[in-house]
Design a protein that fits this description.
Blueprint (H helix, E strand, L loop, with lengths): L6 H19 L6 H8 L3 H5 L5 H18 L10 H9 L6 H19 L1 H27 L9 H21 L6 H14 L9
């Protein structure tokens, strides 16, 4: 354990323990006792940083958001559907690391649905994700890969819904949705976007 006065080092250690509990047990298993056991420490030490379960959940959410931002992404590709495909592949649980990240986020939904403030945070996160996808959709429209007259917000919403629907199915039934099948289904979805009844000319 770090020296008593090394507050930053201790907090980093706590944060790493919080992440390990999240990745293994989700937000539902996140308790002061679980984090203390992960660290081999007492719950009394943790209450110095997180006096309540709510404070612990907020910190866990901050860690999850940070790890989402800094996760490895595919190298930049050309604009349009190719770039959209790359951005969506970064979201799917195709690797153990990506699977753990998605398990954490899906487990957070329960807490977010029960807490208006956390729910607003989750809604804002989705809005940011859709905003990042929109430039790829608009580029695809300019390139003639998607109908120019279609509402880009509708395309983004349909695409985000498909992708996270696939994420959830893969998390619950990984044998049925291995990485190769996830990728194939995404390819089929993107190939059908230009003729999707909700966005066609």
């Amino acid at each position: 354990m770090p020296a008593r006065g090394d507050h930053d080092a201790r907090r980093r250690e706590v944060s790493e323990a919080v992440w390990r509990v999240l990745a293994r047990d989700g937000f539902g298993g996140l308790t002061l006792r679980a984090v203390a056991a992960e660290m081999g420490a007492s719950t009394g030490l943790l209450t110095h940083y997180f006096p309540t379960k709510r404070a612990l959940v907020r910190h866990a959410l901050e860690i999850t958001q940070e790890r989402t931002v800094i996760r490895n992404r595919r190298a930049g590709v050309a604009d349009g559907l190719a770039a959209l495909r790359s951005a969506l592949l970064d979201v799917l649980p195709l690797t153990p690391r990506a699977t753990a990240m998605n398990r954490v986020w899906v487990s957070f939904w329960d807490a977010a649905l029960a807490d208006p403030e956390l729910g607003a945070s989750e809604a804002a996160r989705y809005a940011r994700w859709r905003a990042k996808l929109r430039p790829h959709v608009e580029a695809a429209q300019r390139l003639g890969e998607l109908p120019a007259k279609a509402d880009p917000d509708d395309i983004v919403t349909i695409t985000a819904a498909f992708t996270h629907g696939l994420v959830v199915q893969a998390l619950f039934d990984p044998d049925r949705f291995p990485p190769a099948r996830q990728t194939s289904l995404l390819e089929q979805f993107l190939a059908g976007l230009p003729t999707h009844p909700a966005i066609g000319d």
